[in-house]
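Open question from group meeting: does this chain pack into something compact, or does most of it stay loose? Before anyone orders reagents, we agreed to write out a predicted structure and look at it together. Recording both the input and the output here so the notebook holds the full record.
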Amino acid sequence: MTRKFNIFFWPTVLAITLIIAGCDSGPSSLELAAQRLEEQRTIDQKERAALVEQMKAAAVAQEKKQEPINKLQIQIDALDQQINDARSKGKDWRALEKTQEALEVQKYELQRQ
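Structure tokens returned:
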């Protein structure tokens, strides 16, 4: 009787063990690949967001740097108009031209920074 019991018992235990092992197996290679892909996508999105923020900050910094240069250019253009008006009326324009040259030097220095 024990022999008959062993003949049926051990194959049954083996079959149940294999079934349980098959059902309990970890994630498949496809699931792991999908998980890695999703993790990489998340990392890429974070890197892109950081890059966009850096680009925005650089653009703001460039605009702030450009503001005083633009103001100087407006003054230079106004002086240029005054010089042309003074020349056409036969008035002395040399003082205006010296002021304009000084502003152009300031503008050049700001552009070099």
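Observations to bring back to the group:
Residues 22 and 106 are 78 Å apart (CA to CA).
The longest helix spans residues 29-89.
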